[in-house]
Structure formats: C-alpha cells, structure tokens
C-alpha cells in the first residue's frame, strides 16, 4: 500500500498548480476567420485549421514547410516587454512528417511593427530542430529581453517588444510539403506564475465509481488520464476529451486509481471495475 499512499500524496500535492497570463491572443488556435487564425500573421505561409489533430480544445494549426528556406507565423501584434524581466515561450507541436522540421523562434525588437528592428540572438530561439515523433511534444524556453548595446557599430537600442514565432523548414533540400501541427502556444512573464487552488478543476471532474468495460470522465477540458493499480502500477495512459470512452475491458475486476491531468491541474479518483 505504500506505493498507493505515495501516488495519492503526489496527487494531493498537485492540488495546487501554476497558472500564467498568456500574452499571446488565440494561442490555442480555436478562433478562425475565413480559413485563417485570428490574431496571427500568416502572410506567405501555408496554414490550415485542423479539427481532427489537436492537443487541447477542438482545433490546432498546421503549417506546411516551404520548398526552401523557412516560413514563420507570429502574433499579429508584437508583445510589449520590460528589461530584465524573464519571459517564457512555450507550446505543443506534432512533428510526425519526414519532410518538415521546426524551431521556436523569437525576436526581441526595438519597437513594434515595421518601425522596429531585431536586436539579435536571444535565449528564446531554439538551437536545434525538432525530430519526428508520433506524439505531441512540448517546447519551452525562457530569457530576458536584449539590453541596449551603445558600443556596438552601429549602436543597438534596448528591446521593447517580443515577436515569438513558429518557424518550419524543409527536412532536406529535396523534401517538400511537410506539415507540422501547433497548439496551446504561450508567451508570459515568468513572475506571473502563481499558486492556484484547483478545487474548481477537481469539482468539475465527474465519473462513475463502478464501471464495466469502459471508463468515461466528465472534465472541463482535454486531459491525460492514467489508470493505476492500488500498488502504483501504471496500466494505461490516454489523452482524451470530456466523456470520451476509455476501453478498460482488459483490466481484471478490482479497485483502481485514476489520475486526470490537464496543462495546469491534476486530481485523482478511485473506481471499481466489475
């Protein structure tokens, strides 16, 4: 039973979690108008809404790699930043295409729009490319805006805005048409991380405690559902929507622990398999 206590203790500790103030509008790519994502600059890029491949919510964006060089999409409006403040750029991507690869790519700029200029390399620019995987992958990077460089030639002014971007490339000089999906993109001030009581999340998770061959969980958003034995052995892990059926026909009759976790909160339940 020690493993069970450890598991439940971990879940109890997870009853507080982090929340961020996302500075990117429509970072979840749920809002679209005439085939384009609201509040995103996509001119020159081939993008599409996907309602069958997504990480959270009901849709994601697909970005097709060009035949050469790269293509980048970014928020329509540059994000104001403050010197010496640490910002985090993160999100989910699905690169399961041998013809495309991805880098998160941020510019810290001297001013918003066309009147500003790029202040150079920064920690929110990925050093390596994505690699192919059948599963959604998480990227994250953090750093501070570039300071002024008065001794440079020519001198460079301090960064006042950020322009976070999703950049795709062809996998090779002969690769064409590769597609990468993106979802739940965030850019936020790291200091806004705060402890939030997840009682509300816990209250919204509802399920039957005695089930037969499938498990359905009502929850506020798409989440990862893990099923454990009482001694802590993991039997299954599924990323599902609210009330989406999980097949548990292969489980022996008995008592199990299930954990439900979205991007910001985690809770647990017990159920009996008849």
Folded structure, characterized:
There is one protein chain. This protein has 274 residues and is mainly beta. It folds into two domains: 2-16 and 197-273, Immunoglobulin-like, CATH 2.60.40.3080; 21-192, Jelly Rolls (Sandwich). The chain is built from two helices and 23 strands. It has helices at 2-13, 199-204; strands at 16-19, 32-33, 36-37, 40-41, 46-50, 60-64, 71-75, 79-80, 87-94, 100-109, 137-143, 161-170, 179-189, 194-197, 206-207, 210-211, 214-215, 217-218, 223-228, 234-240, 246-247, 254-261, 266-273. The strands form seven sheets. Strands 4, 7, 8, 10 and 12 form a five-stranded antiparallel sheet that branches. A five-stranded antiparallel sheet has the order 5-6-13-9-11, with no helix packed on it. A five-stranded mixed sheet has the order 16-23-22-19-20. Strand 22 (254-261) and strand 23 form a beta hairpin. The relative contact order is 0.20. The model is unreliable at 1-6 and 8-19 (pLDDT under 50).
Characteristic terms for this protein:
mainly beta, Immunoglobulin-like, Jelly Rolls, 2 domains, five-stranded antiparallel β-sheet, 2 helices, 42% strand, elongated
Using the coordinates above, name the CATH class of the largest domain: Mainly Beta
Give the domain tally.
Answer: 2
CATH topology of the largest domain: Jelly Rolls
What separation lies between the terminal Cα atoms?
21 Å
Question: What is the chain-wise order of helices and strands?
Answer: HEEEEEEEEEEEEEEHEEEEEEEEE
Main pleated sheet:
5 strands, antiparallel
Structural class: mainly beta
| Count of runs of 4 or more consecutive helical residues | 2
Please tell me the overall pLDDT. 89
The CATH homologous superfamily of the largest domain corresponds to Galactose-binding domain-like
Instruction: Give me the count of strands.
Output: 23
Q: Name the shape in a single word.
A: elongated
How large a portion of the residues is in β-strands, by DSSP E? 35-45%
Helix amount: under 10%
- What is the CATH architecture assignment of the largest domain? Sandwich
Poorly predicted runs: 1-6, 8-19
Report the C-alpha radius of gyration, rounded: 22 Å
